[in-house]
Structures are given as structure tokens and as C-alpha cells.
Amino acid sequence: MSETTSRRGFFIAAIYGLGGIIGACLGLPALAYLLLPPKARKEDEWIEAGDVTKLAVDSPVELTFRRTRVDGWKVQSEKSTTWAVKQPDGSVVAFGPQCTHLGCAYHWDEAKNDFLCPCHTSVFSIDGRVISGPAPRPLDRYATKIEGSKLLLGRLHTSAEAQG
Amino acid sequence: MKRNMTGIGEWLDHRTGMPTMIRQFLYEEIPASSGWHQIFGSVAVFLFLTQAFTGALLAFNYAPTPGDAYNSLRYILTELTCGRLIRGLHHWGASMMIVVVVLHMVQVFLYGAYKKPREATWMVGVVLLLLTLAYGLTGYLLPWDNRAYWGTVVTTKIAGQAPILGPYLQRLMGASGGSVGVVTFARFYGMHVLLLPPATLLLIAIHIYLVRKHGVAPQPGDEAVPKQQFYPRQVFKDTLAIFAAFAILFVMAVAARVPLEQLADPTDTTYNPRPEWYFLFLFQFLKLFPGALEVIGSVVLPGLAILAIILVPFIDRGQIIKVTRRTFAGAFILFAAVGWTGLTAAAVRSTPPEDKALAIDYSAPTDWMHLTPEEMAGVAYFREENCIACHMVGGHGNKIGPDLTQTAIHKDAAWMIAHFKRPSAVRPGTSMPPIQLGDAELNSLAAFLLKLTPENASALENTPDFATQGALVYKAGKCAGCHVVNGAGTQFGPPLNGIGKRQTREWVEAHFADPRKLVPTSIMPAYKLPQRDLDALTSYLFALPDAPQQ
Fold first, then answer.
1. Which residues of B, range 32-51, sit inside 8 Å of A by Cβ?
2. What is the CATH class of B367-543?
3. Interface contact A22-B60, CB threshold 8 A
4. Helices B196-214 and B40-59, packing angle to 10 deg
5. pTM > 0.90: yes or no
6. Which residue in B has a C-alpha nearest to residue A3's C-alpha?
7. What are the pLDDT digits (tens) for B129-158?
């Protein structure tokens, strides 16, 4: 041990200091790379989901349509569905196809006049409110627009967003 | 607190023995002559770990199948934050690792550090060099662009030339008969990420174990002086060297853009493949052996050279280890360096200069490809009139005028043209000068500006000059009267998207000069264009996407 204590201290401080800089220069970009969302790409704004004239008031119908979804480096065209309910005033409420509990597909129970989720028996009324079961919030709704006889769907909102 | 820490340390030591092991590793005694010349091994290990780290990060957003590989890499480069940096680190890190591993070997060679009892350490080291080269070879294919594809076609053909083993080697590479495809890709990827890293880790562990077992090689005179400890003096030197290497690597990753060429096209007959720079000398060496002798240059001699390097400790059994007296070793390294440099320089000289003006960088957004010729001409006027001097576009330019990507300020084309002609008449008090262009030009400019959004703004900066110039020629020739490009125009003649797939450049240029000579039924008039316009127009048409964007 020919080195003085201060020289030894300098070596050790430099080892940790330089190591720390390298760690930060690798670690911070890695975190940004993994955690920041990719640059937003435009998705379709309004998608045609079906013919409004074929809907009867207060009688939910499951409509199937295709929409494009940006999935990483792919733009997927995929089948999607909505439960559409025509209102007495002619407007249409379109519910998202998944139960708000854990995302199972629910269906309209003709006999009982409500939406039933088979997974954990959440029950929703025709206007999407939770009647019973574990669902934490009413059914999600698509923004809707009617052009001529065509029903157009926009973004899917949770009921809280839709009200606010 | 301090007592608690000591307690934890003792507990850990008793149960795992780790602290003692680390201490033994750090306080290992090394010869007094150790110093700066022995940093290369540590730098190589550091670079290997950095490659593993950046490689894993890339793998998190990369789909290892042809086609998807290319698209997912483009996604990493154009859409993810720091994606370009991480790919840059991985790309340049690979080159740097080769440099450092070779320097490490040169140092050990010059100092005769491979001599008894360190022969096995040397031989394991040579295998590690071969593994490093194998990473370079297999990783080269993974972007699946033209460079990757054609480079690998050559690699597998060379492997096929090996005497007796050739066909089996090719089959092992998934390239039977030299055809590179999905199987080749899967094998190369599997090698690169599943087989090579654990093999490298194991061999590095054995290599370091052997270094420790025999001790760091001493120089004459070391017996007389007391030894020093590895930590902290030598560790400091290693760390400083690692830091310097990392600083260079980081600057390269930020400053030197790693290009991505177009998606691998096996039907491209014009592509001129070149290997990575560290293989260029082999590529050039091959040219010295024409015809039937080729196998000697491609397989036999390189194979013998590797064998000779592995056997160095048994070939050189002399006692001299003093570096200044190892003149033969020094002369040999000099000879090898001159030979390598000469071959590499000859290979570089024989590479036709890449036409930078026509190169498209696919590692940047290419939204510009989807503009109509009218809008593309607008880009040309936008640049000519230097609008960027006052306006912001996607974070660039000056803030004197409004940001042109804001869709809120977009009005209809008629309003914009009126505004271009007399800005103050439409917007009283504005300091914008009138634009001295005709109606047709202003119409293009308006069409382009109406298309601008924050999302595509950065892409428009990437528009190559040949595309804007080509669009001007296209517009001047009124081509849109008969042809459709990106969905705009009249479909009287054939649509021009995908022309690069249907015709060669020479054909298209000859066709401009005299359409009826090539297509007797054609009603297209002849266009006698100046060479510059002809080049720009043809390049522009060839850069169009094969199909218009939906």
C-alpha cells in the first residue's frame, strides 16, 4: 500500500462517479424507450356501424362492423361489435361490447329485458346502468352520429367521461 | 446504522460467501508493471454487457420474422422515444467490440502473454473473437433490408464453398442451395439471441477464471518489485478506459445515423452488396483467387489463419516476453495491419459511390411518399420561398408567423391563395410579404399546406430534393392529365405507383424520349427533357409507394 489515502479516495470516487454517469446514460434512455408512448398516429374518426332504419325503439341489436386499430407497427383491421339501442327521440345509444367488470362479452337477455354478463353475472339495464353484480360502472358508450340512415361510431367513452 | 450494515454484511458473508469472493476478486495481487496496456479486456466485457442490454431493449419491440422485422425496426426508429439512440448504440457497439477485442489480442500477442502456462487462456480468447464475429454475421441479417438480405446471400454462398462440409453448413444456416429466406432468418436470429450470448458468457467466465488462476502476466523485472492490488488503481484505469469508450460510442449513436434501406427485395437485380467494414478485407482477399481457386481464398486460407492464431502459443515457444525485444511479433502485427488496411482500402475504392442524392432513408418517417404530385410541388415552392424563415413547422423554424401545422389556422384554398397574393388585405396588420408566384404555383402551395399536420410535419423535412424537383417536372409536363399518382390525376394512361416494380429505369427514360418506340400503341407524347429533369422525374416516380395509401 504505497498510495496515500487521498489518492485512493480519488480512485474510488472516480470509479463510482464514471460508473454512475454510464449507468444514467444507458438507464434513462432505456426508461424513456420502454415507458413513453409511441408517437400518436391518426385512427379513423367515424366508422359506419350499420343502418339506423333497421333498429326498433328500445330493442337492443348487436351490430358488427370493421374498424382499424393501430397495434404497434401494424394497423389492424378487425371485427368489432356494439349493442345499439334506438331511443324514442330517434337518436341511438351504442354500448361498448365489453362488460365493465373484467371485459367479458355480455348479451341482451330478451326474457328479462336487461343486459347479462355470463362471467360474473353483472346485470345492466337497457340504458346501461348497473342493476346487480360486481360491475363497477355503467356500460361504456361510443360517441354516435347519424348521417342519413347510417349510424356512425366515434371514440369509446366510459360513462363518467360521457356525462362529464 | 453502521452496525446494522456490518451485521447484514456478516450475515450475507456467512450464508453466501459473496462479500469475501468480491473482496478476493478486487484485492487480487497483480504485477507492478500492470497498467494502461491491460485495459482492453475490461472494455471488451463492458461492451459485451452493453450489447446484451441494448439488444434486449431492441427485442422488446422487434418481431423476428422477415417483413415484420423490418416494419418493427422502422417502428423503433421512427415512433419510439430514444429508439434510434438504442439501435445506434447496438449497431456501433458491435463495431467497437470488434475493434476492442482485436486490440486486446494485439496487446496480449505483443507482450507474449500467451506463453506457458497461459496457452488455454489465449485459445479461449480466440474462440471469443470468433463468437464476436459470429454476432456481426448473424446480426447483419436482422433488419431485413436490402443490405441485410444481399449481404447474407453472399455469406451463405461462401459457406457453401467449404470443401465437403459446404452443403451441410448451408443447410445448418437454413439456406440450402444458397437461398436466403424465412428459415435462414429464424436460424440467424436464434443464433444471435439464444445460442451466442450464453456461450459468450460461459467463455468469458472461463477466460477470466483462467486469467485469475495464472495471474496477470508479468513483465521481466516484476519479481524484484512488490505487487500492487487490482483495486482501486487498476480498476480506476479500466473504468476511465470504459468511460472513454462509452463516450465515443454514445456520440456515434447520437451523431452518426444508422441507415435503414428499403425492405429486402430478392428480385432487385441492381443491388451491390457489401459486407460490414470489418469483413471487407476478406471480401477483397477473395478477388485474388479467380475461378476454381476461389475456395482457397474464401474458406481454406481463412480457416488455416484461424487455426494458426489458435496455435500461436505452441508455434512461438521462445522465452522472450519483454515487449521491446519482441521485434518479430511487432513486425508480424505491423505486416498484418498493413495487409488489412491495404485490402480494406482497395475494397472501399472498388465500391461504387452510393448516389447520396437518390438515397432514401427509411429509418425516418416517409409520409412524403404519399403526397400527391400537386402537394409535392407545393413542398418545392415552400422551400424556394423559404417560408421556414418566419414560420414554425413541427418544432423547426422561426416563430415570427404562426405554426403552419396547426389545423385550426387552415382555411380553404381560395382564402389561402388570396392571402399569399396580398397578405395584408386578408389579415390586416400582418408583416408577411406577398408571395411572387403564379396561380398554379400558389394552388400547389395551398394544397400542401392544407395537408400539413403536427403528425406529418417532421416527415416533410425528410422529403428528398429529387422528389420535389421531380414533382415540379411532373406538374410542368401536365402528366396528371393522363396518369394517377397516389390517387390523384386522371386514369387515362397506366397508374404510376409501382412503376419501379414493372419497369427498369432505363426503360422508363427511353420511354419518355420516344414512347411509341417501346409501346407502339401508346398515345403519350414524347418528352425531350433535360438530363437533370429526366433524372429527377424518374427517381421521383421510382420512389413512389407500390400502392397508394388507403
1. 50
2. mainly alpha
3. no
4. 160
5. no
6. B233
7. 999 999 999 999 999 998 999 999 988 988
